[in-house]
Amino acid sequence: MKTTLVQALFLIVCTVGGGAAWADHALLMDGRVLYNVMVPDGASTGGLLVRIRTTPMSFEYDPRTNVVTTLPRHSVIKRVADFVETTKTVGREEATALVTRKDWGNYLPPPRPVLVAPTPAPKATPIPATAVAQATPIPLNVVPDSVPLEERLDQQLDMFMKDQTKLSQDAATSMVQGLISPVQATTAKVQLLEQQKMILDRYFPQNAETVKLAVNYWNQQLERARQTGRFDLENL
User: Exposed/middle/buried for 124, CB within 10 Å: 0-12, 13-18, 19+?
Assistant: First the structure.
């Protein structure tokens, strides 16, 4: 698993703006299936964290609950276990048939890592109340560290992508209406990316390989945004 995770965000960087087939269908690591999406070329290695392009025809299907959910526009970041490259969009009936044909309904997600409780630290001599520093509460836009690291990073990047999508749409509308200039739109995007990178720097362990990859990717995305005025998701 470590090898594929090391490749994960590197694949995102390499495939931004790259070719992809229309109407791919992807099995996610957690057992859900995405339909009518565009999976970057080279994402066939199971476990990779990849940016998947969505369309108005995209939807998510959970074979275990038979529940269908629409997907957000532009893109989502998910871990892919398998995918089918096609040129045809499908509906719900064809989607369930594909699950049966590929035997995805019997796919078992890998077990989550067991959380080991830390050894209780010896009781220290109480510090006077005036000398105790107030703990800084975790902001609402940061996934709490009670979630396992890989899942927490996935959720955090998903939040980042939704924020980028919203700002991209708002900026485009505001420029059309003449409310802001392209320079102001670029500034807003760069500021959002800087805030997102600050969250990765401050609230995630910097020695974890997946976090290093995420930070490196955000550094590269910041540089591209400063030069082009666009998020990577806008170049897909």
Answer: exposed
